[in-house]
Amino acid sequence: LDVTVQALDLADLKSVEAAARDIEASLKPEQSKIDFLVLNAGIMALPKRELTAQGFEMQIGVNHFGHQHLFAQLEGLVNKPGCRTVVLSSTAHSFGSLDCDDLHFSDGRAYTPWGAYGQSKAANLVFAKAVSERLKGTGASCFSVHPGVIQTNLWREPQGPAFLSRLPVLKNLNKLLPRLISDKSIEQGAATTLYACLAPGIPASYPGAYLSDCNVAEVKVAELKDPNLPARLWEATESQIAVALAK
Question: Cβ atoms within 10 A of the Cβ of 208, count?
Fold first, then answer.
């Protein structure tokens, strides 16, 4: 098994571009495509509003903007027959509202850790649909995935109401919360991602589908079913990236 480790900071679009160049340069002459592009990295529920290198709200900046820019840089390698792009979303896509006019909580919306995370996961789900539309007619496909609630370092930030950390009797509950609600091991959490990469039949039958527990799942948030939303999110993201990189 030949494994290459590539440095990539999704909080800095220039790092994303450098990583994409390195990935493309690392391909052997006979390699004309990337079979599976899995956009898996992410951060969750930052207690305070933080910004990326280009000034985007950190959660949507890392979880969505960084991934869209990486896909855009590598699109020519993943739009070939049989290629699949898999975007890690979450059932938490219902935790926040996807507002294309104020994605960064900078124009009147109040920032909350879980609201911002939920918006970023909704963006992942809608982004996968936008990519699926872009890939029409190429033989390539794209899906979003809810992997499950998994005990990983994604939980390193304190979870739950802030007052739990201030009450001596309850302060340890904040640390125990991830263990109480996690429902899958890391191996089990990877299963639906592998299903999205390898299962036959789903590209043609369910383009752009949202998957959970190795099956097609229902998107329960009505606004995310708007057929115009994927293009709107794609265009808003690309426009903001262009402005940020031009500074």
Answer: 22
Collapsed DSSP state (helix, strand, coil) of residue 101: coil
Query: DSSP string covering 146-206, please?
Result: E---B-SGGG-S--S-GGGGTSTTTHHHHHHHHHHH--B-HHHHHHHHHHHHH-SSHHHHS
* Dist CA 54 CA 62 (whole Å): 11
The count of C-alpha atoms lying within 13 angstroms of the C-alpha of 109, restricted to the half-sphere facing its C-beta, is 19
Beta strands in the chain (DSSP E): 36-39, 84-88, 141-146, 210-212, 215-216
Whether 117 is catalytic: yes
| The one-letter amino acid at 166 | R
Per-residue pLDDT tens for 17-57? 999 999 999 998 899 999 999 999 999 999 999 999 999 99
10 Å Cβ neighbour count for 35? 13
Q: What does the alpha-carbon distance between residue 166 and residue 154 come to, in Å, rounded to a whole number?
A: 22
pTM for the structure as a whole: 0.88
Kindly give the interhelix angle for 229-246 and 13-26, rounded to the nearest 10 degrees: 100
| Rounded Cα–Cα distance for residues 210 and 144 (Å) | 5
Between CA 48 and CA 76 the distance in angstroms is: 37
CB atoms within 10 A of CB 45: 20
> Among 111, 117, 195, 206, which one carries the catalytic annotation?
117
